[in-house]
Amino acid sequence: MQITDVRVRKVAKEGKLKAVVSITIDEEFVVHDIKVIEGEKGLFIAMPSKKALDGEYRDIAHPINSGTRERIQSTILARYQQALEEEPEPLVVDEM
């Protein structure tokens, strides 16, 4: 399995949610609404989920082993960091 595309949509508001990401796998399968979240121990991803009848949130799509989860997370977080670095510098106006 290869992650062939990562699209990052940064979240402008303050809070723990930093971005929403879509990944393409093997140029054939897309997973939307993966969240980049700032936790107590740093950034992590949360897979797309929905609220069940019992009130709990359950993942809609997720990796079935920790190695795959780590590979997806490291790829997404690297692309998120790249997106932050690509952000244009704020405009500074000289006072004269």
Keywords:
alpha+beta; two-stranded antiparallel sheet; Arylsulfatase, C-terminal domain; single chain; 41% strand; globular; 6 strands
Would you kindly provide a written description of the structure presented here, covering whatever features stand out?
With 96 residues, the chain is of the alpha+beta class. The protein has a single domain (1-83), classed as Arylsulfatase, C-terminal domain (2-Layer Sandwich), CATH 3.30.1120. It is built from one helix and six strands; from the N terminus they run ββββββα. It has one helix at 66-86, and strands spanning 3-10, 17-25, 29-39, 42-46, 49-51, 57-59. The strands form two sheets. The protein has a four-stranded antiparallel beta sheet, with helices on one face. The N and C termini lie far apart (57 Å). The model has no long low-confidence stretch (mean pLDDT 90).
Helix content: 10-25%
Silhouette: globular
Average predicted confidence as pLDDT: 90
Question: What CATH first level would be assigned?
Answer: Alpha Beta
Report Rg.
16 Å
Distance between the termini: 57 Å
Count of separate DSSP helical elements: 1
Unreliable spans: none
Q: Per CATH, which architecture? A: 2-Layer Sandwich
Considering the protein shown, what is the CATH homologous superfamily? Stage V sporulation protein G
CATH topology: Arylsulfatase, C-terminal domain
| Count of separate structural domains | 1
Number of strands: 6
Main sheet strand line-up? 1-2-3-4
How many strands, what sense, and barrel or not for the largest sheet? 4 strands, antiparallel
**N-to-C order of helices and strands:** EEEEEEH
* Percent of sequence in beta strands: 35-45%
Structural class: alpha+beta
